[in-house]
Prior knowledge:
With about 675 residues, the protein is of the alpha+beta class. Helices cover about 55% and strands about 5% of the residues. The chain is built from 33 helices and 8 strands. The strands form 2 sheets. A 5-stranded antiparallel β-sheet has the order 1-2-3-5-4. The protein starts with 5 loop residues before the first helix and ends in an 11-residue tail after the last helix.
Amino acid sequence: MMLKWTCQLLALLNEPHGECVAPLLERLAAAYPAAVYHPFQLSKESVSRKPRLAPRVAATVRAMSAVLHSPRLEALAAAFEDLTHPELRYKDLLETLTDLLKEGRVEEARASYVELTRWLRDPKRGGFLADFAKAKVGSQGERTLQKLDGLCGVDGQHLGRFVGSGGGPPTLQRELNRVGMGWRKLEEVSQVWVKGNKQRSTRLESYSPLLAKYHRADEAGGDPLEALELPGQYDGDAPPLVDQHAAADSFDAELLVMASLRKPKRLTVYCSDQRERRYLIKGGEDLRQDQRIQQIFAVVNTVLAADGQCATRGLAMRTYSVLPLNERVGFIEWMDGTQPLGKLIEKVARVKHRGGQDPISMAATKFAAAYPSASKGQLPRWASCSRRDAEQHLADAHALLPADLLSRGIESLSVGAESFLATRSCFARSLAVVTVVGHLLGIGDRHLENFMVEEASGRVVGIDFGHAFGSATHQLPQPELMGVRLTRQLTSFLRPLDSGVLLKGHMVLVLRTLRAQRDELLRVMDVFVSEPNVDWAKQARKLGEAQLASVLEPSEGESQASTVVASEGGGAADGDRDAAWARNRLASVVSKLSGGNAAHITEAELRLNPVAAKPATFDRLVEIVRGPADSLRRQLPATALTPEQQVDVLLELATDPNVLGRTYHGWKPWL
């Protein structure tokens, strides 16, 4: 059944051989419109940006646009966008506007400005958004919007004056701040509203009156695109029983607003099969990356299940459904019966030190104080300090809290000694798979809130893949220098066998199996080259000239990897910056699947980081990543390692106190 590969098939419309899949896509859209609707809306935006389309592909896009037209689903997608906190949505719209101006794309910037002002003036919005729109910058309301039009012109006619090298867009930002329309000002308005309306701030109607009043019965009819089908129902290999699929009937009146940066909301959906399901609605992000990574995880599970040793050991990953509605909002399946490892550890720490100061907060304060902000032109302290100092910073934080907090937390979930040992075994097996696959895909930002643990079994589940394919190393101002997370709480829980014994055997087996089936994995990843997501396109546009040159003309060590990816489906033109960047990102995966040394791969990622690539900083970081003279990762070659050697290097790098002692304090490397 081809339905589970709909996204990959649609991405091929961007390729020279798109004409081959066009007839199949038309048949799928006619037979299963609900399965193809959302992927097509996303791919249509990408295809429409191409200057020339093959006649057969253009005809297919027109035909599918006619079949997959649904004002009702468009309205629902817009309503889900309203769940994004307004100051964050305003910030996103401003960033899009300034990025377009920076690139001189004035017409597109004007269209973005029209979208921004329409959103601010929309009289149909209610609740939080209505209050927010009235407040804007206090009592000035429409007068301030008139100032905005005076600054940018009605419908953005004057935006062209902000185009130019050396900071046209920053000038726009300064002008917006001057008239009281900077996003920080609107963030203050939002915070004041939440404090004064604590009960309303968790009500669905405060964000989207349309969703609060929605009921599927009101839209009853024979059109399959009148109802919102829930994600994860077209993933099998057999023809789907569409008449038995669950759709959203209505939504619970209460939301759970999460405390993370983007303030995603947990929403309970009352479904047509009389069940309740919960989803995380995340706005301001292109969730295609999370969706594609879940598809890769599913292929990993298939490969591991086909290997006798992996199947016997139960080596697999738990997956969950992701449904991007458009480039700005989507659904993520909520995993009941799990909790974040960070919360579990913090809960134990509070009980253990009841009445005293929280040791985790003490460790965080002490570690953060070790790295004050660098003065302009100076090397950051986290990069310039000696190995001895970095290790001492980590040791000082370790001294403030016990090493067994995670172990005690898992023990609290177990009913006895046998249960605890079984839970620990499942924890180790799942952590091994998560660690290896996370390394292969370059998944970063692995703080402990991004690890969930199943309370019944102890299985580890990774979530939130906003940083993947090395972006936590090549993009963050304080880059991650280790490929995976194996900090003290994790390794202490595995004692007395520790990570070198209990984890290594599983990790080697998983890596060897995936290396043997690398072609199958890489075929699934072709979609990243054929149809780069929004975040990858932004990353490509931000490349400096030297970085872009290294991407378009990879070094000798990277050439083979880039050639492999290109030969396996990367058919976009070589001069296309987005496709070249996508091939570069997948080249690191090929390198790892070919026996690449994790330290050398990290070094290559650092060359693309504008902060780390500065000569003095880069030379220092390379020494840190490669380790001392007797380190395994320095002694082994850059390529052609055995799976055992790759795992040894990965474990050494991930547990090196000199590396952990320089890690961003928000990552909590001392836990």
